[in-house]
Amino acid sequence: MANSPFLGKAIKYGTVMGALLIIIDLTLYIIGTSAFLSSGNFFLHFFAVPLAMVLVLVSLKRSFFGPIPYWMAFASAFLCFLICISLKAVFSFIMYNVVDTSLNPLLYDRASDAIIELMEILHFSPARIEQFVDNSKANTLLWSPYNSIRNIAFFSIPGLAIALFLGAIFRRKRRGSYFR
Length: 180
Known about the structure:
Elements: H1 5-31, H2 33-36, H3 39-63, H4 70-99, H5 103-121, H6 126-137, H7 145-170
Helix pairs in contact: 1-3, 1-4, 3-4, 3-7, 4-7, 5-6
């Protein structure tokens, strides 16, 4: 399994995309914290990780000269996703806890403001919003080791769904299949 081409491609694409996102983050951090913590940077990450998943599957499809088995497509996409978000989680942990600890309160303020705004749009009661504010003040360290692991687990759920979907798109169809 270690010499498997799909495993090597998934590791390669996940590592390259993770490193590319880290380089972009470092560049934006050097430019300024407002660029680093901007919503544009968030959306870049939001679209770049699934793009890496698609690229690894396109590469596998080319190396197999056509469609690939479903399990291989799913496993490659999901492994690429896990590597990419794990690299980003380690980078974020180091960035917020070692390099610049002043970013943590800024990130907390932006995240809580966005959540409060969303709660108001969804017509949550003022008491419920106040309860959220009180509960969130107890855990202002967004990138503790526990929260970093929890974030990887939380974001693995949509990553799993994306990998299942992409696996179905890139899979090899069997003869006599209803879905030709």
